[in-house]
Design goal:
Elements (H helix, E strand, L loop, with lengths): L13 H10 L5 H14 L4 H27 L8 E5 L6 E2 L4 E5 L5 H19 L3 H4 L1 H10 L3 H5 L1 H4 L12 H13 L3 H9 L2
Parallel strand pairs: 1-3
Antiparallel strand pairs: 2-3
Length: about 200
């Protein structure tokens, strides 16, 4: 359902285009299951191997990442969060259900993990009371743009040469957030400044 379009991008993903070519537009869940099984087989993707690889990569940075994120946001995530594999290039998440997706194959899984978990930290520190006040669009723009801070505070955890690029429509706001953070690295002051302006 997220391959055809999403809140931040109206473009269909490559995986969805292949699914639609294989099963037609508006495929059923059964159609998607068949396509995924074929895709994994055709592309020689062993999900157990990828799960183990991703878990190993995450284990190398998880403690340090959580320490930094908790210091920045002033909260600890109240639940364990699960990452599920997807063949889609888009990686949605659900805070209430405590999960997100990671594309496979993927040479930089920690970029996705750090990015998606940043949304969880944002929600629990700032968003739970702010989404209704700001509206879905403004909240979305802020929480997506806030991931620019991963390039500042967690660059060494993303992987060598890896950056969190964000969406094209958020580039100006990301730059403004980065500039503000360089002068005042206080997440509550930053959020108030951009949420109220």
């Amino acid at each position: 359902t997220k391959g055809k379009t999403s809140y931040n991008s109206s473009h269909t993903t490559k995986a969805y285009q292949e699914l639609a070519a294989y099963k037609g537009e508006d495929p059923t869940p059964s159609d998607a299951d068949q396509f995924i099984a074929k895709y994994l087989l055709d592309n020689n993707i062993d999900t157990e191997t990828w799960c183990a690889k991703f878990q190993d990569e995450w284990a190398k940075v998880s403690d340090e990442y959580q320490k930094r994120a908790e210091a920045i946001f002033g909260v600890t995530l109240p639940h364990n969060v699960t990452g599920f594999l997807t063949i889609n290039q888009r990686c949605p998440y659900k805070i209430k259900e405590n999960y997100f997706y990671i594309s496979v194959p993927n040479l930089s899984p920690n970029r996705i993990v750090l990015h998606e978990l940043w949304h969880f930290y944002t929600w629990y520190a700032l968003g739970e009371n702010e989404q209704d006040r700001l509206g879905k669009e403004k909240y979305n723009d802020l929480k997506e743009s806030l991931t620019i801070l991963l390039n500042v505070e967690c660059a060494d955890l993303l992987g060598e040469g890896v950056v969190d690029a964000g969406y094209p429509q958020h580039q100006e706001l990301r730059t403004q957030i980065s500039d503000f953070w360089n002068k005042n690295p206080d997440i509550n002051a930053l959020w108030k400044h951009f949420a109220d302006n």
